[in-house]
Amino acid sequence: MPIVQNVVKTGAQVAGAVRDLGRLREIVQILGAHGFGFLLEQLNLLPDVSIIRRIKPSATVEELPLPVRAANAIEALGPTFIKLGQVLSTRPDLIPMAWCRAFESLQDNVQPVPYEAIAAQIEASLGDRPEALFEFIDEAPLAAASMAQVHRARLPSGEEVVLKVQRPGIGRVIETDLDILKFLARRVEGQLPDLAILNISGIIKDFEKSIMEESDFTGEAANTERFARNLAPIEGIYVPRVYRRYCSREVLCMEYLKGVKMRQARDEGFDMERLGKIYFEGAARMLFVDGLFHGDLHPGNVLVMEGHRLGLIDFGMAGFLTEEMRDNVCAVLFGISQNDFRTVARVMFEVGIKNTTINYPQFEIEVLELMQRHVVGRSMGEVQVGAFLTDLLQGCLRHNISVPSNYTMLFKAIMTTEGLAKDLLPELDPLEEFRPVLEKAVRQRFSQDRLKRDMAMHVMNADYFLRRLPIIGSQVAADYETGRLKVPIYQTRDPELERRADLRANRVGGAVVLSAFFLGSVWSLGMPQWKPFEIPVVSVMLFLMTGLFGGWLLLGAIRSGGFSSGWPGRS
């Protein structure tokens, strides 16, 4: 009977949390087929566990390493999960590096949608048939991904463009999968409490915000225009023009760039050192100056154009940093270049989210050990910044310090830049190329203008607080007088402590009563009443009651162990 009740309860919980049970079953089958049945059983996802146990992975699948199996399963699960895997590949602070590398290989290349469906999407989104809007559209796609498809086209004015068109119905798929991911996150946190430190629900919440923004192409259009403005001062970097007349939430129209991929540039005879300096100048400006950086600047998103110009594309994944965050990142990288482990430890401690009390001296020692392992005694060209940052993020996690996602995304961008350099630009050292920008950023941070501005901001904040202080004080006083001011106190119950407290309270009460009897008997000695043996009767009676009550208290204290465990100061 308990088994039946558990099945019914599990079924009700799943049905109440997941709207598309068919999609959940599909996810369970894919995970089971890739060898994750043991995890599914622990999460208690389906009412009937036998369904999960019947899904057996093939012998070929069982031979694969676990991270590779996970990547294959994610790819089979479709666009939402692929995007999640790509995000997780940037979080070595959450998952082991072997898993990050496996998830980096995730590709969302799929079979293209028939052109008729793409044409219908364009018409529904832009309000007219493609033939009426464009002089020409190539029905064969340039690329087909799980979320969108890219076609070449020509505007009536003659400009060559590319159209990025969202797959019909992908929005509903994303919403369904997000619903299931949130349910799975709650299941993991409920069934596997050891993973609570990862804050999986928080990760899914951030991912939901990210993928919803990425599926709205108006945001990517705005990002592209901002990058074009920010990078305009750098000669040699080109960002494609956006044609707003032909853009919407589901369609993005941009200038078509002619060029070769970065990987092919050396074979095509380009000067790689010249290209590398342009690339690093642009990357440094994005990462440390503008506060808006390309979140996925891998070689596939960098085109080499005529005249040794670099064309940057695909601005769907972008990161944002405040001025304070940029200062912190510059401080970390400058600390690495100067072998200053204290600065690195202090900054990471300050930016991190502390989930519990942190042993800072021990954390500082671990950062020192990381510096000794990766930095000390090496030239800047020999330092593996990506490896150091990966170990640093994992060290933060071991000390229960969660690094905000904006920082981890930036660190991933730095690792991607370093990886591209070591793979395609061995002539240049990334840290040395970044050094002038870092030094300039540090000088600006402590310049007179910056210090004056910071001081003015502090004065304004203090003035605002002081002006509000009387209002806050009056409100607190009013709440206190009306009884609206409440201070919640949470106390953990301990039966043994409660027993001791009751025992002490009883003894104190008994002592008060005993004292009253004794004082009453002494006070009644002078009363004018019948005095056999020259002692008033009332006094005799009170003395007797005092003796009896005192003896009863003494006997109770002995029986309860009061002299060994119940008195204050004893354990």
Give the second-level CATH assignment, the architecture of the largest domain.
Answer: Orthogonal Bundle
Average of per-residue pLDDT values: 79
**Number of beta-strand segments:** 13
How far is the N terminus from the C terminus? 47 Å
Radius of gyration: 35 Å
Note the beta-strand portion.
Answer: 5-15%
The CATH superfamily of the largest domain turns out to be Transferase(Phosphotransferase) domain 1
Domains (count): 4
Secondary structure class reads alpha+beta
Residues in helices, as a percent range: 55-70%
Explain what this protein looks like in three dimensions.
- By secondary structure, this protein is α+β, with helices and mostly antiparallel strands.
- The longest helix has 35 residues.
- It folds into 4 domains: 140 residues, no CATH class; 156 residues, Transferase(Phosphotransferase), domain 1, CATH 1.10.510; 126 residues; 72 residues.
- The strands form 4 sheets. Strands 1, 2, 3, 4 and 6 form a 5-stranded antiparallel β-sheet that branches.
- It has 24 helices and 13 strands.
- Helix content is 61%, strand content 8%.
- Strand 3 and strand 4 form a beta hairpin.
- The N terminus and C terminus are likely disordered.
